[in-house]
Specification:
Radius of gyration: 22 Å
CATH superfamily of the largest domain: Periplasmic binding protein-like II
Structural class: alpha/beta
Strand order of the largest sheet: 2-1-3-11-6
CATH architecture of the largest domain: 3-Layer(aba) Sandwich
Number of strands: 11
Largest sheet: 5 strands, mixed
Strand content: 5-15%
CATH class of the largest domain: Alpha Beta
Distance between the termini: 35 Å
Length: 426
């Protein structure tokens, strides 16, 4: 699935939001008078596969007085988020159900723009635990998990076999050693070793967070305090910096987003590639991929063993300003229900939030990577659950880019990032 870490906002907008949140309890939306039934509008992302539209049409056939209208937000994540924020700031009832990037839950809940979901609306025990956590704020479920996933390692099975390597790497040292062995073969000569997403955008925050977690560190601790200047966090950043210095990561990857890396792997130019599950289907196309039938999928490696990925995902929440909240809740419960999720899963390869789908025989036949993805998800962590997430991400991107490009040594970048995040956490 392309659970790309979408949708960041400008710092000025965050300041405006902070000011809006300072009002007293009088600003808290109430469901009273809004808990009605009737037609609803669902604001969602681009439906490239038309699957959501088909599921909505099926709902509408059975709910003539509670029909759903889809509104597709801009494909660009920043623009999509801005459109939602502007809608919420004026307390508009234009959207009844909103599809949120997993990292937006805390902010939208803290601003009282979405309402907590009542207990029993969905079966919490049926979800992948890590996915369920992304819908929570202060222990309450505000958004029902729908699409989920984490970064995985794509690797060239054929090249590893030629080099005598029998299994994908579990550690960073094994990854480097495997690359050296592959490059020593005729088939692997000239291949680049490894790449993730290192352009100055949200993907860099994800890749940095994964490196920190995979070295045993954390960007924020459980109390919400930044921990990016610890030895473990510095080791994660150093892995990325050293990768560019020693050739493990090619220099051109400094601008890579998801698609640039996917194309490099699909064209046979990378031995290893970190990306989301959506790559599997594209890289398997015999007409458009040079690596079809030649690659495998594994959890990402870490410093001393399998690494810890970053959870991506989109969740569904009910707008606090909807006038038909009862219908909105029912529709959310319908979309994340087992039958509908499986129907959705049959049509496209986006990883879904229900645990049972990862062991379902039919799904495994369609998507053989699911066991590796689930293994990675069990160790994955959400991005920092902070209200000012977008400013946090911008600070990470600034300091990590400075380290990757050699403008700052690792220790200085880590200290400067610690100061910036501490200020945002206060």
């Amino acid at each position: 699935m392309t659970i790309r870490p979408l949708w960041c906002a400008a710092a000025a907008l965050s300041l405006a939001l902070a000011a809006a949140a300072c009002g007293g309890s009088s600003g808290e939306p109430s469901a009273a008078g809004n808990d009605g039934r009737g037609p609803i509008t669902v604001a969602t992302g681009k439906d490239l596969t038309q699957t959501v539209q088909r599921l909505v049409a099926e709902w509408n056939d059975g709910h003539s007085k509670e029909k759903v209208r889809l509104v597709e937000l801009p494909e660009d994540g920043d623009q999509a988020r801005q459109q939602l924020v502007q809608n919420m700031q004026i307390k508009s009832d234009a959207y009844d159900v909103v599809r949120l990037d997993a990292v937006w839950t805390a902010e939208f809940a803290a601003r009282r723009w979405i309402l907590p979901l009542p207990g029993g609306l969905v079966d919490a025990s049926s979800f992948v635990p890590a996915a369920l956590e992304t819908g929570k704020y202060r222990g309450r479920l505000y958004a029902a998990p729908w699409l989920t996933g984490t970064g995985v390692l794509y690797y060239r099975e054929d090249l590893l076999a030629k080099a005598g390597v029998k299994a994908p790497p579990k550690t960073w040292a094994e990854l480097r050693d495997d690359c050296a062995k592959v490059r020593g073969t005729a088939e692997g000569k000239g291949a680049d070793c490894y790449a993730g997403q290192y352009g100055k955008y949200e993907g860099l925050t994800v890749n940095y967070s994964e490196a920190v977690q995979s070295a045993g560190g954390e960007v924020f601790d459980s109390s919400g305090r930044p921990q990016v200047n610890t030895p473990q966090a510095k080791a994660g950043l150093r892995f990325l910096v050293d990768g560019f210095k020693n050739g493990t990561i090619p220099q051109k990857a400094i601008t890579f987003k998801e698609e640039e890396g996917r194309r490099a792997f699909q064209e046979g130019r990378l031995v290893f590639h970190r990306n989301w599950a959506y790559v599997y289907a594209l890289a398997s196309e015999k007409d458009g991929s040079k690596v079809a039938g030649k690659f495998g999928v594994a959890p990402i490696p870490g410093e001393g063993g399998p690494g810890s990925g970053t959870l991506g995902g989109n969740n569904l929440a009910v707008s606090a300003f909807s006038k038909h909240q009862a219908t909105a809740r029912d529709f959310v419960a319908h979309i994340v229900s087992p039958a509908v999720q499986k129907e959705y899963g049959r049509a496209q390869s986006f990883p879904l939030s229900l645990a049972a789908l990862y062991t379902d025989p039919e799904m495994l036949r369609r998507y053989p990577y699911l066991p590796a993805l689930r293994q990675g998800m069990d160790k994955a962590r959400p991005r920092p659950v902070v209200v000012r997430y977008n400013e946090v991400s911008a600070a990470v991107q600034e300091q990590v880019t400075a380290a990757l490009t050699g403008r700052k040594p690792v220790d200085q970048a880590a200290e400067d990032l610690q100061k910036a995040l501490t200020a945002l956490a206060d």
